[in-house]
Amino acid sequence: MSDIFPKWTNQLPGKVLIGAVMVGTAVTAGLWYYFTPKYTRVGYQPVQPVSFSHSIHVEQLGLDCRYCHNAVEKSWYSNIPTASTCMNCHNQVLATDPRLALVRESAQTGKPIPWVQIHKTPDYVYFNHSVHVNRGVSCVECHGQINKMDEVYHAKPLSMAFCLDCHRNPGERLRPPDKITDLNWKWSDDPKSAAQLQKTRGEEFVRDWNVRASQNCSSCHR
Fold this sequence. Notes:
Layout: H1 12-34, H2 37-40, H3 54-60, H4 65-68, H5 83-90, H6 101-109, H7 129-133, H8 140-143, H9 160-168, H10 191-208, H11 217-220
Helix pairs in contact: 5-6
């Protein structure tokens, strides 16, 4: 009696299994790559419970970053200001503006404003703001030109590759200590001389400040 199915069908289960493994591997690799911060968070701009414009407060009014984020030089995190900090100005400026009703309520009751976190690293990543700020790394290096944003958005990828690029060449991202929160500051208006100054002075900062940007896994993964 002849076989019902051709002989080549005997190899079909194996081929199907191999194909499934290959497809699964490709899908996993694609998700692993495209679901990194570079692709999933860059451009992320959630709607906040209270509209806050860095452009107005920093660019127009000249507030220093540290007035609101006053823990950034001494803590691992950059704190969100309390409503009482906002009310230092807004008890007179726009004191009855309905847009600030939630801020006034928070200052009176102590109930925090439910801000939506924008910049976030995975739980297995350790990042210390104070170490970076106190060694010449400006806010713009990780957050972009945040002083010009009417609404804050996720500007840089904050991926491992992004961090390692800086750790391999820290001098290129450093600036004088008194210019850390001067977010419009640049070495020179001439791009060529600016690049040269940044390279030369950056190397000096690395040496003088004893900057040791580790590339060891345990530095960030603890």
